[in-house]
């Protein structure tokens, strides 16, 4: 990739600023599909390869090595893996300075800061993650005699996740004696595959019934034709819920619409922005005509 960057930058008469993404060999406590910092990850450069690639990049005419980058995963709710990774990366920084004469200007610690399942109050503040990281980084840089680099973070989900609410309309209610009560809704894994993919947890409220006693335990079933299409298990709802009620699922602003598909040939829902009591249709609801628009018949001339 360095050779490719150098080649492209040369063809444009530019010098490309780059960070080397390293694998700090830190396993964060999250679903294995969204762990990205362990040694076996498909992402990043193994630690033992970094000195060679750093030296190579420093010798390239059209590559400007600025620093290092790492990313541990997604939905990480504990700051300690980040602190552990800082320990690994600062030792690497010190070795690059002593062996290659490279002084790190930038350090990108990625993102993955987890959010809760229910509203803003359920998520940790950004300072919970950032403050211990910066404290550790300052201490390690001081110990190694290194200047403090410019630090970047990528808190995408933390910024937008809580801004999203998905509204579903309830359909049939199926009660199985001594077992489960299912409430079917008009969406599911096609618009939010995360529960099926990662076992992601969400919370919800029945619209217009907040504050009422929740004396009924239900499982929210999606509309797709497989048993794995379950959005929420063991959700407490008021006892008088009925078909036609709206269910508001919280904290769906990240990795929902962007992961949505047309599985089961289902059209994607609309996206509406709301601010200060005013709404704006940001994305139109798909139609079945939209799904068929790119298809061609073998009978067409």
From TrEMBL:
Broad EC category: lyase
GO molecular function: diaminopimelate decarboxylase activity
A Pfam entry, by short name: Orn_Arg_deC_N
Reactions catalysed according to its record: meso-2,6-diaminopimelate + H(+) = L-lysine + CO2
Enzyme Commission identifier(s): 4.1.1.20
Biological-process GO terms, alphabetical: lysine biosynthetic process via diaminopimelate
Domain Orn/DAP/Arg decarboxylase 2 N-terminal: 1-160
Cofactors, names only: pyridoxal 5'-phosphate
Record has Transmembrane as a keyword: no
InterPro entries per record: Ala_racemase/Decarboxylase_C, DAP_deCOOHase_LysA, De-COase2_CS, De-COase2_N, Orn/DAP/Arg_de-COase, PLP-binding_barrel
Pathway annotation from the record: Amino-acid biosynthesis; L-lysine biosynthesis via DAP pathway; L-lysine from DL-2,6-diaminopimelate: step 1/1
Keywords in alphabetical order: Amino-acid biosynthesis, Decarboxylase, Lyase, Lysine biosynthesis, Pyridoxal phosphate
NCBIfam families attached to this UniProt entry: lysA (TIGR01048)
Protein name: Diaminopimelate decarboxylase
Source organism (scientific name): Acetomicrobium hydrogeniformans
């Amino acid at each position: 990739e360095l050779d490719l960057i150098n080649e492209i930058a040369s063809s444009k008469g530019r010098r490309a600023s780059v960070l080397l993404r390293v694998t700090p060999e830190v396993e964060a406590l999250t679903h294995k599909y969204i762990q990205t910092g362990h040694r076996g990850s498909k992402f990043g450069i193994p630690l033992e390869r970094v000195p060679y690639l750093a030296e190579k990049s420093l010798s390239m005419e059209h590559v400007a090595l600025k620093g290092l980058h790492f990313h541990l995963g997604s939905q990480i709710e504990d700051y300690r893996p980040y602190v552990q990774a800082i320990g690994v990366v600062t030792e690497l920084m010190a070795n690059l300075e002593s062996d290659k004469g490279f002084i790190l200007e930038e350090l990108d610690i990625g993102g993955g800061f987890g959010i809760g399942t229910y509203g803003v109050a359920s998520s940790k503040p950004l300072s919970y993650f950032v403050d211990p990281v910066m404290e550790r980084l300052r201490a390690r840089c001081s110990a190694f005699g290194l200047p403090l680099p410019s630090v970047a973070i990528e808190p995408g989900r933390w910024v937008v996740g809580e801004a999203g609410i998905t509204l579903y309309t309830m359909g049939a209610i199926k009660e199985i004696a001594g077992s489960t009560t299912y409430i079917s809704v008009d969406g599911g894994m096609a618009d939010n595959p995360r529960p099926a993919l990662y076992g992601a947890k969400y919370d919800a409220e029945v619209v217009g019934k907040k504050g009422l006693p929740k004396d009924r335990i239900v499982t929210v079933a999606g509309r797709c034709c497989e048993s794995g299409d379950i959005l929420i298990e063991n959700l407490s709802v008021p006892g008088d819920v009925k078909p036609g009620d709206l269910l508001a699922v919280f904290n769906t602003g990240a990795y929902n619409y962007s992961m949505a598909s047309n599985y089961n040939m289902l059209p994607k829902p609309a996206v509406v922005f709301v601010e200060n009591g005013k709404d704006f249709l940001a994305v139109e609801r798909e139609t079945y005509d939209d799904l068929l628009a790119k298809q061609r018949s073998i009978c067409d001339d």
